[in-house]
Write a structure and sequence with these properties.
alpha+beta, globular, Glutamine Phosphoribosylpyrophosphate, subunit 1, domain 1, 13 strands, binds N-hydroxy-L-asparagine, Peptidase_T2, about 20% strand, 8-stranded mixed beta sheet, Ntn_hydrolases_N
Length: about 350
Amino acid sequence: MFNRRKFIKASALSAGLLAVNKNSIAEVLPKGKSGNINKPIVISTWDFGVAANADAWKVLSKNGRSLDAVEQGVWVPEADENNQSVGYGGLPDRDGKVTLDACIMDELGNCGAVLALEHIKHPISVARKVMEKTPHVMLAGDGALQFALEQGFKKENLLTAKSEKDWKEWLKTAKYEPVINIENKLYDKAAPQKLPGNQYNHDTIGMIAMDAQGNLSGACTTSGMAYKLHGRIGDSPIIGAGLYIDNEIGGATSTGVGEEVVRNVGSFLVVELMRQGYTPEDACKEAVMRIIKKKPETAKKIQVGFLAMNKKGEYGAYAIQQGFSYAVCDSQKQDLVIKGKSYY
Ligand code: SD4
């Protein structure tokens, strides 16, 4: 964990000066002063981002690489069987198959993705292998599974008893009605919502980190819309839609109904708006406004949220509907949850 005393002392002494050992945590300065960069830092979508950020921080606080931080961070919800949104325990498609989407991107513009991958608990790590071990960016379905097995990943049953029960309940009506902010409803362990099985529909963790070297990486991983058509792919594994990193400018990720994000190439748009000088929050807001403008009637009924960070370590979010939250972990605070602003 970060040494707070050392940090306070160093910041007070240097009073904004950056003349400290390059690898020292004392280089981490509070944001808000011109020229200062808030790093290392990690942000991620929804309340469940707190636990994911904590594991990412283990890497970042030891001067590790942001790529390792985001991979390890999102392992937490991927492995959590109580999180019916990501990885193991995720809700299945309408045929009862858990199909996972994930992508990862580093500071050099390298990226990898898996689409509709079955039977592998950590799709983000398969996405990273696609990035590092193949000349390709995306692998889908059986091909992605075959590649994962060749890389030594273990084949597992990802459909838990709870998710199977919910799916069977859903089959009784088989209605497809996305519920707004379902991630938080599912995650609220203190007050679990007793939603009928046909209401669990969308879930994702998107994470962006900047390491002590100032390099940005991102990861996005999901079981997608619950009870989707078999083979349906959302925004989450699509570079530019569910995630985009440009190490000169910043990074963005999205959550919510992926179809609307894909239509607007949402995360790429957010990064390009930051390039034009928008703050992270304003860039996310503009991306949301494009979705609303294009399909105002659809937008009233769905949730889409964007989360972004720029090269100064400033961050912000904006969503169509109220209730979108995100988690922040930096040198000042490790378990911050922020309610993002929204249009409605
Ligand atoms: C998808 N964007 O598959 C994902 C789901 C999601 O919050 O993010 N839900 O469309």
